Amino acid sequence: LFPKDAGRYITAGVWVAERSGVRNLSFHRILVLGKTHGACRIVPRHLRHMYNEAMAAGEELKVAVCIGLDPWNLLAGGTSVEFGVDESRIASALTQSSLGRPVDTVRIRNGLTVPAEADYVLEGRLTKETHDEGPFVDAVRTYDRVRKEPILVVERVYRRKDAVFHIIVGGLDEHFMFMGMPREPVIYQAVSRAVPHVGAVRLTEGGCAWLHGVVSIRKQHQGDGKNAIMAAFGAHTSMKQVVIVDEDIDVFNDRDVEWAIATRFQADRGLVVLHEVRGSSIDPSGRDGFTSKMGIDATRPLGSDPAMFDKATL
């Protein structure tokens, strides 16, 4: 879609892969190279680990790319869980709670099971061959750099009679939703283990729903704000700025969050800066995947008069 994109892309495909008893669902874009081949941006997470294992064993990795899925499978495909946890179970739980039934699946010829309601399924294999992938406009709305990436060979295509070919446009709201929103519960759980009570978590639109976040907590001990900062960074390593606020602050209101920074934050005691730590590969200001990170503790200081920090209302 964008003028400097390397070519035609498949952007809304949820990949299904299995190896050694481990099943994985995840999003990965595909640069179309021809009728049966594509270069695939396989980020260094679970699918890349499975691919590397297959390559080390001298094998190719059987995969299926599902296009035109329901929101629950799309959300599951964007969720980060521990390696070995099957994201299909997340999709099934979401479908059960919303529609009162689990996800229907079918088995395709290469042995993988895929969501039955997918409009298209590309059955194929990831090979040892690589090809230039990129440039491509990613979530930060800049062109991602060119990399050597694995080639997908498509062996069969399945489609529904009324199929709709779904695309996700880089850097727009739908991209933010499926990329960022599934990370918010992961951050919530991690911060909940570090402080007694967490109110809400938001990855902000201004931070591309990926690089900047806000977390509200009920502060009970001095240091809770900084503990929450470190837990949030540990849960979402791509995030490079997080603001911790009290639970009276609406994390979904940018003006409210900035007000908390303006009235409750002092840089000499509330600023946490981390140097040369793992960041996001799509951050153009990073250096080879490393970045500096800033945490802002914008919670009320304990030991002071709480009324001094209340927002007056009419």
- CATH structural fold name of the largest domain: Pnp Oxidase, Chain A
Distance between the termini: 49 Å
The spatial strand order of the largest sheet comes to: 1-4-5-12-9-6-2-3
How many domains, in number, for the residues?
Answer: 2
Supply Rg: 21 Å
Shape: elongated
CATH architecture of the largest domain: Roll
Give the rounded overall mean pLDDT. Answer: 93
- Secondary-structure element order, N to C: EEEEEHEHHEEEEEEHHEEHEHHEE
Major beta-sheet overview: 8 strands, antiparallel
Number of helices: 8
User: Can you identify the CATH superfamily of the largest domain?
Assistant: Electron Transport, Fmn-binding Protein, Chain A
How are the SSEs ordered, and which strands pair?
Blueprint: E1 9-10, E2 14-19, E3 22-27, E4 30-32, E5 37-40, H1 46-56, E6 61-67, H2 71-77, H3 87-99, E7 105-107, E8 113-115, E9 120-133, E10 136-137, E11 143-144, E12 147-159, H4 173-180, H5 184-192, E13 198-203, E14 212-217, H6 224-235, E15 241-246, H7 254-264, H8 267-270, E16 271-278, E17 290-298
Parallel strand pairs: 14-15, 15-17
Antiparallel strand pairs: 1-4, 2-3, 2-6, 4-5, 5-12, 6-9, 7-8, 9-12, 10-11, 13-14, 16-17
Helix pairs in contact: 2-3, 5-6
Structure description:
The chain has 314 residues and is an alpha+beta fold. It folds into 2 domains: 161 residues, Pnp Oxidase, Chain A (Roll); 132 residues, UbiD C-terminal domain-like (3-Layer(aba) Sandwich), CATH 3.40.1670.10. The protein has 8 helices and 17 strands. The strands form 4 sheets. The protein has an 8-stranded antiparallel sheet with strand order 1-4-5-12-9-6-2-3. It has a 5-stranded mixed sheet with strand order 13-14-15-17-16. A hairpin with a 4-residue loop joins strand 4 and strand 5. The longest helix is centred in the first third of the chain and has 13 residues. It is elongated. It starts with 8 loop residues before the first strand and ends in a 16-residue tail after the last strand.
